[in-house]
Design a protein that fits this description.
alpha/beta; two-stranded parallel sheet; 15 helices
């Protein structure tokens, strides 16, 4: 068995790729992996380590064919706020606007309900959704890339993550390892002060355009509560900016207003949202969808993106897309 380096040592990008290759290939013990992940989290991962670990995961994934303009929007999870599934709803809204969404996600590891759990509670057969991912992406513009289907090396890691029960570097690696090879993304992370570090990791990996966002209260998506740190990454560089809900005229709301629950609770809330229910959940989805549509290039600015998101909800287009997806993935 390989012995991982001390977690107090900062690794180069190449060293991190090698070490996480050992982890993913089962060349270290589970106890060693758990220790290393916890200690690395406690001292904070560097941009080089995140990029190297993501390269190791990318090298072992099972890819899918996707349209050239496919996009993903997701959060890293692990923020402890247990909110409703915002990025899942955003995916439907964005796809309803004609932008292909290759939604990469998983079951909950450190939250009450992950994207896969909520979609399953809505009636999406996750096994069938995996089998038909390329078909649904090509024909109706959305798919769910269940992490376990595309990252077989993660099979032994998921139980370790669940035992740890809190955020680790694997939360950060996942969004950087989309099996569709998307070139544009909105990624929410749980630590606002960490946005430039994560943006540096993304820039090292390269992208056409990605926004890294984090609410001031540690929300892994754009927050209505107050300000947000945003890194706009293009190519191998990024710029930092501050954004709040005022940019598109939305009211501020506390995080508690979008507090979620288990998969059944979150699925009911998402269905209600798609059926036209107003309130903070809708506003949070519009805010994040606006940013995603800007990143995709489909919206000229945030205000235009918000208008597109509202129309997808108000016209029932996002709701019809979900029904179509459930019907196709059988």
């Amino acid at each position: 068995m390989k012995r991982l380096p001390s977690a107090s040592e900062h690794l180069t990008e190449k060293e991190a790729e090698e070490a996480f290759g050992w982890i993913l290939d089962g060349e270290t013990s589970e106890e060693e992996i758990a220790r290393y992940l916890i200690e690395m989290t406690e001292r904070s991962e560097t941009a080089e380590e995140i990029a190297g670990a993501a390269r190791a995961l990318r090298a072992r994934l099972i890819p899918v064919d996707a349209p050239e303009n496919a996009i993903d929007c997701c959060g890293t999870g692990g923020d402890g706020h247990h909110t409703l599934n915002v990025s899942t709803a955003v995916s439907l809204v964005v796809a309803a606007n004609g932008v292909p969404v290759a939604k990469h996600g998983n079951r909950a590891a450190s939250s009450k309900s992950g994207a896969a759990d909520t979609l399953e509670a809505l009636g999406l057969d996750m096994e069938a959704a995996g089998r038909t991912a390329e078909k649904t992406l090509a024909e109706i513009g959305i798919c769910f890339l269940f992490a376990k289907n595309h990252h077989p090396a993660m099979g032994r890691i998921q139980p370790i993550r669940q035992r740890i029960g809190k955020r680790t570097i694997f939360n950060l690696m996942g969004p950087l390892s989309n099996p569709a090879g998307v070139k544009r993304q909105l990624i929410g992370i749980a630590r606002p002060g960490y946005v430039p570090i994560y943006a540096d990791a993304k820039a090292r990996l390269g992208t056409e355009r990605t926004m890294i966002v984090s609410g001031d209260e540690g929300l892994d998506e754009l927050s209505l509560a107050g300000g947000n740190e945003v890194a706009d990454v293009t190519g191998n560089a990024f710029e930092m900016r501050r954004v709040d809900a005022d940019i598109i005229g939305l009211p501020h709301s506390p995080v508690e207003a979008i507090r979620g629950g288990d998969a059944t609770h979150n699925a009911k809330a998402l269905k209600s949202l798609l059926d036209g229910t107003p309130g903070p959940y809708r506003d949070a989805v519009i805010f994040n969808a606006a940013a995603t549509l800007v990143v995709s290039g489909e919206a000229e600015n945030w205000l235009a993106g918000a208008g597109m998101a509202k129309r997808a909800l108000d016209s029932g287009a996002a709701s019809r897309l979900l029904s179509q997806w459930i019907e196709m993935a059988r």
